Every structure is written in structure tokens, then in C-alpha cells.
Amino acid sequence: MHIRQALLAAGFLGLLAIQDIVGAATSEEARKLGTTLTPFGAETAANKDGSIPAWSGGLTKVPHGFTTGGRRDQDPFAGEKPLYAITAKNMEEYADRLSDGTKAMLRKHAGYRLDVYPTHRTAAAPQWVYENTRKNAVAVSLNEKQMAIGAYRGIPFPIPKDGVEAMWNHLLSWRGENWQFDNRAYLITSSGKPVMTVDGVADQSMPYYFKDGMPASANGNYWNIRMLNVGPPVRAGEAILGHLNLNPERDLSYTYLAGQRRTRKLPNSCCDTPTPATAGMMFFDELNVFAGRLDRFDWKLIGKKEIYIPYNTNRSLAGKDLDLLNGNYLNPDMVRWELHRVWVVQANLKPGMSHAAPKSQYYLDEDTWIAVLGDRWDSKGQLWKSIWQLPITMPDLPATVGVTFGFYDLLSNTWFANQVLNEKSSQYKIMPRYPDTTFSPDSLGSGAR
Questions:
Q1: What is the distance between the alpha carbons of residues 292 and 295, in angstroms, rounded to a whole number?
Q2: N or C of the chain: less Cβ packing under 10 Å?
């Protein structure tokens, strides 16, 4: 079923009647997709000096020995050596290609560095996703509630006109239809000591990308997650359920507390509310760098920029958890950085709204639309958090998908890493479609798999 039909079935008739305030791309603009622009709207050509190559279809060859449901730590470019390293000593040479948060980390920690490798544009998607993205380009628009009206099984705004459209591209980025992984999360203290806060099994689904169309039973939910905690012992038996909806007013989250044997609907699963999915260490809108509602901020599309970002980081899934969690930051030996073009989007709190971080800036990879880096400032204007996620190649989907993510607190010197999969035998397992009951509140107390 087409998403517009699904929205009607879910009771959004009145919302669809609201006058659209931002139009779609023109037919002339859309004809660039697949030629001078990639099917997702990135520049196909290389940059001026060739340090960013032309996109040639992405990485779709499955590595030898890969097993569906197994590990994804095979580095597709294992034989490469860094071109150079960026440290506190030479960072000024590269300052115009670094995010504010990255520069702050280099200044703060003498041992922090960026190993910069040759750039590979590995992003890919199935042909049907490309075809739907082309249709979206001329059909999708925003209404006054900032809903993406008419979006369907592809990037909604491959030729964005403003910051809201670009952020919807991130929220609806391609990462598969259904998947599962075991994961852990860690808070790392200012002294560099890791404390495990989550050890869970997560089932996730994107009805938006169901191949046969978004069903009416999805009720407009474009992303669902159910996570059951098996540890640490103080949290064993807890569970959380989350729904993100095309109408953000319908976003919902539920928790199950084993000691109370009760499922509770969270009164607020938005914005700067700490989410139980991270034991309260991250805000809801910091998951995957940014998630959830867009209506508290004014979003400005700054434009394109070439910067260094983590990319093709499959090696970050290798070894033990503590191999990756290196004291006060991610182990530089395990994080690959590359030069890529990104869309820069700035968020400023709207008058009359409240948020612990009234200003943020996000860096969206042009090839995938994933927000790879983000910076947040506090109410005093201090640069507070550097948020990050590590994209890895998944040629079996095919896709390049962000997996491990977290933030550095630049004021307290603590940091947090979520979806740490290093010691798990299954890393992002592609699943058949889950039954609707998997993501219902009733599923939490049963602990059913």
C-alpha cells in the first residue's frame, strides 16, 4: 500500500488536507538523478583534486566467507594504509575540513587522532529504492506540521530545498527492512573507566521500506524497535519498545520494569528526555546522531562541505569491546576516517520552546544521508557534545549503515558508546518480516523472541 493510502487508513485525512508549504523538486531537477546526481541525490563526479572519487555504484560484492546473520567485521579495504594522521599538532592544516566537535577532541586529548584513508564511496541500495527515490523527488512535499507527505520507500527529498527536508532524508535513510542484533552500551567515566549500562537484544523494523508497501497496520510508524535487556544484572529483564511515526505527534515509547511486572507508556519520548534504551545516558533525539521530532527547531541548510568523517569502519566491530573503548575516546587504530562531501544542517531552538541543547549542527553524508557527526551547544553557548556514529559497509543489503554510535561530553570528559557489537556473534542480522505483535506493548512483559 502506498504511504499516502496508509496515512489515510491510519486516520490522517485531516492532516493531509493541510496546505503544503514546501514543494517538491521540478521534473528538470529530478532528471539529474542517476546522471550528474546519484540516485540518492549526491554529486556523481569526483571533487576537484580527485581526493573524493566519482560514485560508481557503491559496494555490492559480498566478501568471501560472509555468513548471513554472522559478523560484519571484515574490512573491505584491509590492505590500505593511512594517507596521513591528524593530531593536535597539525590540526590547523586541516581545520576547515573538521567539525567543531572533532577539533575540540583533538585539542582536549593529546593522544586523539584521525587516521585518514583513501575515500571510497561504498553507498548502495536496491534498484527499487532508487526508483522510488526518483518518484519521491517530484511527489513529496512538506506541510505546515513538517510532515513529509507522499514519501514512499525511498529517500523523500533527494534534492533538498531546506534543512527540514535534509533531516527527513536522514530519518528515512535506507538501512534495510527488518534486522536484529545483540548489543551493549557503555558509559566511560572521565578517568577512562568503562561501565556497562546495557546488554540487550534488539529487533528493529522499518515498515516505510517494506518491499510490498507500507501496510495500514503500521499506523504510520516508519521505524520500530523492541529491546530486551539481559544485563547488566541490575537491568536484566527490562525491555523498551519504540515507534517513530510519519506524524511525529504519534511517536510512542513503552518500558517494562521486571521488578514491577508492568508495561508503562512513557509520557514523553521526545527531544531532550533521556531514553531508557541507553539507561538514560542519551536524549531521545541523539539516537543515531539525531532521531524523532523536528518541530522544536528552526532548521537551516548551510550547504555542502568536504570534511573528514568516520566511514567504511567495519574494523571497529572486530576484537573485544574494550579494544574499541580506548580510555577517553574510541581507539584511533580501529576507526577509519575519510574525506567526504556532507550536507551541513544547523538547528536553532524556536522561540517559546525548551531544550537542553538550544543549538546543534549536523553533518549528513551526501551518499547515504546518514548523520555521521553532530555538535550540540548548551544554554550558555558552550560546545557541549560531539555526537558520532560509525558507518559500515553491508554489501548483502546492499547499504552503508551507521551501527555503533555515541557522544563525547566535552564539558564533563565522560563519553558514551551505544550498539557496541564487538563481542557479539551476530552483527546486524537481516530478518524476515516480524509479525505486528512483535512491536506491540503486550510483547514486552512476555519477553518473547
A1: 9
A2: C
Between CA 191 and CA 414 the distance in angstroms is 8
198 contacts: CB under 8 Å, gap ≥ 6? 183, 184, 185, 229, 232, 235, 277, 278, 279, 418
In contact, 180 and 204? CB cutoff 8 Å? yes
Residue 348 falls inside a structural domain: yes
For residue 6, the model assigns a pLDDT of 42
How far apart (Å, rounded) are the C-alpha atoms in residues 185 and 202? 12
Q: Which three cell numbers stand for residue 215?
A: 501496510
CA-based nearest residue to 418, from 254, 240, 245, 214: 240
Kindly state the greatest CA–CA separation across the chain: 61
pLDDT (0 to 100) of residue 23: 54
- Rounded to two decimals, the pTM is 0.94
Indicate whether 178 belongs to any domain.
yes
Boundaries of domain holding 389:
3-442
B/e letters for 392-420, b = 16+ CB within 10 Å, e = fewer, are bbbbbbbbbbbbbbbbbbbeeebbbbbbb
- Kindly report the CATH number assigned to the domain that includes residue 107: 2.50.20.10
Lookup: cell for 95: 581545520
Identify whether the C-beta of residue 316 lies closer than 8 Å to the C-beta of residue 324. yes
Return the percentage of the chain with pLDDT > 70, whole number: 94
| Phi, then psi, of 265 in degrees rounded to 5 | -80, 130
So what's the pLDDT on residue 9?
39
**Into how many domains does the chain fold?**
1
In a domain, 449, yes or no: no
Q: How many residues does the chain have?
A: 449
